[in-house]
Amino acid sequence: MRKRKGSADHDSSFTGNVTLLDGSSDLKQCHKKTDAASDPGGSGTGMGRRYRRGGLIWRLRRILIWVLGIYIAIPVIIKVCPSIQAKLVFLNFVRVPYFIDLKRPEDQGLNHTRNFYLQPEEGINIGVCHTVPSVMWREAQAKDAEWYDKSFQSSHPVILYLHGNAGTRGGDHRVQLYKVLSSLGYHVVTFDYRGWGDSEGSPSEKGMTSDALFLYQWIKQRIGQKPLYIWGHSLGTGVATNLVRRLCDRGTPPDALILESPFTNIREEAKSHPFSMVYRYLPGFDWFFLDSITANDIRFASDENVNHISCPVLILHAEDDTVVPFQLGKKLYDLAAQSKSLNGHKVQFIPFPSSLGYRHKFIYKSPQLPNILSDFLSAPHPHV
C-alpha cells in the first residue's frame, strides 16, 4: 500500500512537473512572439521593411511616371500652342528686379536721368530713359524735359541701347552699363519694347524693331550730325541688326554697331540654350520647338543681316557665357568678316576669357572696356 501510495505520489509529482514545464513553454513562446515583434532583426520587422521598401518603390515609380508624362507633354503642348514658345523667347513677363519704380530712375542711382514716354504707334506708349554724360550731372539736377532735350545739342555722342529678353530697362546689369557709358561721356538712351516693363502692347520681333527704329529717328532729329551708335545685348543684338539693316538699306547707316553677347539666329540660339538641353537630342526637336518659334514669325537672323550692313561692327563676348554660347558670337563675327557689304568697314571681335567671370551680362565690369571703345571708335572718350 505504501509502495503504491509512493508510486501514486511519484506519478502525481511527475504530472505536476509536466504541467509546470508546459506552462513555462507557453510563456516562453509568448515572450518569443513579443521579442520577435520588437527585435530589429526579427522576421516581423523584415516583413515591415519589405512593405516599406515596396511602398517607397511604388512612390518612386509614380514620381517617375509623372516626370515622364510632363517631359512628353511639354513639347506636345508647345506644338499645339506655339504662342507659348514666343513667351519663352521674349520672357517679357519676367520683371526683375521686382518692386522698382521705373518712373524714378534716381532710386537706382541714375539721378542724371529723365524717364518719359513716347508713342511709336497710336495706342502704344513705351517707357524711355535718357541718361546724360556724368560731366553734366550737377547741371542735370531737378531739370525738366526741355533741358534734357537741349542737352542733346552738346558735343557728346549718343548710344541707343537695346536690351535683351526678360527684365526691364531698370535691370541692374543694364543700369550699371548706363553708368559706365555715362562716365565715359556718352548720352545713353534706352527703352522697354512694347510689352516689356511699363510699356504698352504685346511683344513681337516686328514690333521690337519698329520701336527701335522710332527711337533712333527720334534721337536723330535732336542730335543732327553728331555720332549715334547702336548697342544691342543678347536678344537685343537681333533687334539691333534688324534696325541697322533697315537703316543701311535706306542709305542712312549709324556711325557704329556694337553687339554684346550676340547669336547668329534665334533657331541656333534656342538649340544652344541651357533650357533646351533636356530635349536637344529628342527626335523631332526642331519640329516641336524650333518650328514653333518660326510659326510666331520670330527669326532674329543676324547672320543674314550682316550681309546688308555697311557700318563698323564691334562684337563683345565672354567665353564663359552659358546663355548665348561663345561659339555663336564667334560664328557671327566670321560671317561678318566675310560680308561684302562690310568690306572696307572695321569689323572687330573682342573675347573675354572665362577666368574673368563676365558670363552673359557682366562685360560692363571690364576695366578694358573704355580702351576697347576708344580704339574701335577711333576717337578719345568725349570727357577726356
UniProtKB/TrEMBL annotation:
Q: What is this enzyme's EC?
A: 3.1.1.23
| Membrane topology of this protein | Single-pass membrane protein
GO cellular component term of the entry, any? endoplasmic reticulum membrane
A molecular function (GO) term: phosphatidylcholine lysophospholipase activity
Does the UniProt entry include the keyword Glycoprotein? yes
What is the reaction catalyzed? Hydrolyzes glycerol monoesters of long-chain fatty acids
Pfam families for this protein: Abhydrolase_1
Which residue windows are transmembrane per the record?
A: 60-78
Q: Which domain of life is it from?
A: Eukaryota
What family does the Swiss-Prot or TrEMBL record give for this protein?
Belongs to the serine esterase family.
- Locations listed in the record: Endoplasmic reticulum membrane
User: Where's the AB hydrolase-1 domain?
Assistant: 157-251
Q: Which UniProt keywords apply?
A: Endoplasmic reticulum, Glycoprotein, Hydrolase, Lipid metabolism, Membrane, Transmembrane, Transmembrane helix
- What start-end ranges are recorded for coiled-coil regions in this protein? none
List the InterPro entries. Answer: AB_hydrolase_1, AB_hydrolase_fold
Record's protein name: Lysophosphatidylserine lipase ABHD12
- Cite a single GO BP annotation: phosphatidylserine catabolic process
- Role, per record: Lysophosphatidylserine (LPS) lipase that mediates the hydrolysis of lysophosphatidylserine, a class of signaling lipids that regulates immunological and neurological processes. Represents a major lysophosphatidylserine lipase in the brain, thereby playing a key role in the central nervous system. Also able to hydrolyze oxidized phosphatidylserine; oxidized phosphatidylserine is produced in response to severe inflammatory stress and constitutes a proapoptotic 'eat me' signal.
